[in-house]
TrEMBL record:
GO terms for molecular function: protein serine/threonine kinase activity. SUPFAM superfamilies: Protein kinase-like (PK-like). The keyword Kinase applies. Keywords: Kinase, Serine/threonine-protein kinase, Transferase. This is Serine/threonine protein kinase. Gene3D superfamilies: Transferase(Phosphotransferase) domain 1. The keyword Kinase applies. Transmembrane segments: none annotated.
Length: 215
């Protein structure tokens, strides 16, 4: 017998959901979703939704034509159960049902002036080392993909952990934490425009560094 949340997904959500990938390097767009589903966020491959009756679960739906669901399913299989990661409870043809992680992303912590304790950085470091021990390659780990909950660190997005190339994002974020995250900065809200300037500057610097052959 199917679980109630699975019936809701397959008979109510998916038949009515309108999700598109309009630009290959921009987040997917949800044009329509049935009530009372809510959109929690979207990335370049998929959108994440939740139903208020099943608040401890999220559904990650891949947009038509976007790859990666097989790889992400395998990532969760390898990770198994770990306190810093979600778990995959069900895998469909174009969607995953995941245990919901709650908290505040490190990006939002900077934006709101919420101090990020070093324990959070340590937890994420240990979680990424665990992923490596499971034959995975942590990739695209940045401030919007990691989260803080009750002073502990969580890794939210593992969709690119099957990629093979080296990704310096987390190491660079840790370096910035050590070099620039002064005590007087920690409770100072940083405007979105300033964070976007930092993000765009980092992307240009990373591209320059790659052309110089240093990564």
């Amino acid at each position: 017998m199917q679980k109630p949340w699975l019936l809701e997904i397959e008979h109510q959500l998916l038949p009515q959901l309108e999700i598109y990938s309009e630009q290959p390097f921009e987040p997917v767009v949800v044009h329509y979703m049935p009530e009372p589903w809510k959109l929690l966020g979207s990335g370049n491959y998929a959108a994440v939704l939740m139903h208020p009756d099943y608040a401890d679960l999220v559904v990650k739906v891949y947009a038509p034509g976007r790859p990666g669901i097989e790889e992400e399913t395998e990532v969760y299989r390898r990770l198994g159960t770990h306190p810093a990661y979600s778990e995959c409870l069900h895998a469909g043809d174009n969607y995953l049902v995941l245990r919901r992680l709650t908290g505040v992303t490190l990006y939002k912590c900077l934006h709101r002036g919420i101090p990020i304790p070093r324990q959070v950085i340590k937890d994420i470091d240990e979680a990424l080392a665990y992923a490596v021990s499971r034959g995975l390659n942590p990739h695209d780990v940045h401030g919007k993909n990691v989260m803080m909950k009750d002073g502990r660190g969580l890794v939210v997005d593992v969709s690119d952990f099957m990629k093979h190339e080296f990704c310096p994002m987390w190491d660079d974020l840790k370096s910035a934490y050590d070099r620039f995250y002064f005590p007087w900065v920690r409770r100072m809200p940083i405007p979105d425009f300033a964070l976007n300037v930092v993000r765009r500057s980092y992307r240009k610097w990373k591209k320059f560094r790659r052309t110089r052959g240093t990564i």
